[in-house]
Amino acid sequence: MAKAKKKKFCSDQHVTDEVIKLIENEGLAPFIKTWENVAGVNEPTSMGTGKQYNGINLLWLSMARMMYGYTSNLWGTWKAIDANGGTIDKETYKEKSQSIIYMSKIIDKKKIDKKTGKPKEFWFRRVSNVVNLDEVTFPNGVPKKWVVTDEPDMNIVPPIESCQGIMDNYFNGKGTPTLRHGGNDAYYMPSKDLVVLPERKQFSESSKYYSVAFHEMGHSTGHESRLSREGITAMNHFGDHKYSKEELVAEFTACFLCHHVGITDTRENSASYLKGWVSKFKDEPKMLRQASKLAQKATEFILTGEVKGYK
User: Fold this and answer.
1) What is the rounded distance in angstroms from the CA atom of residue 180 to the CA atom of residue 183?
2) Is residue 227 part of a domain?
3) CA 76/CA 82 separation, integer angstroms
4) Is residue 1 situated within a structural domain?
5) What is the tens place of the pLDDT at every residue in 42-52?
6) Which range of residues forms the domain containing residue 89?
7) Contact 79, 139 (CB under 8 A)
8) pLDDT in tens, 266-308
């Protein structure tokens, strides 16, 4: 494992001051997503037809994927699963299936359309149930058409010992969130207490992977069983005041943890990310300071499992 020089945790104020200076710099480069999407299916798609869902089905299955932390975007009916050599028990299918709506056509040969001279066609709405590929077992292996073969090389992004140690200690502790890798998204789901990250091999540099991981870990500290931060426990809408402030807290947490292990090459991109969210507030410096203080508590919790004097 590669090693990074470790610095004292107490210098968070210095990091905050430096990040604010970067944010105030008019020449700050725009935020850049730091991982590459893996090849494969990027939107909810039918196992049976190979076609992408649209309309309300696309939205619903996208939300279901995030809700359950699935890594796949493939969904199938019982018939489609069986046709592709998969198996799933009835209870799992019943419990985990999602309803989709589609239009079906019936041709009534007894009724002839006077304009076309052809049998009349009638369309009606039907409901079907589908489950995600992650819930399906394939005794003979997942069909090759769904297997990604051109993923980035794991060898170019080795783990950083000090960073991996922080992650391992946090996720292996008592009452900590679940960590899942896979897919092209990074997020924390409070309802499932679940952190989802792209694979480390999707990042060009190890430091970028850990910065993203630390950000999502920062969000997870806000869970009601930990620091019970309102940005997590009481957030109602994407982009609202509480959500925006929570994004500041999570990214400052990533900055502090990166500083703790000696990573500095991600700081400018973090500043760009913070600049995008803090612009929603009238008093930007004050909001940044408030978020920084909450992030210091989140950082301490991740490193020690507690925050002294915090209730």
Assistant:
1) 10
2) yes
3) 9
4) no
5) 788 999 998 88
6) 45-146
7) no
8) 888 888 887 877 766 556 677 888 889 999 999 999 999 987 6
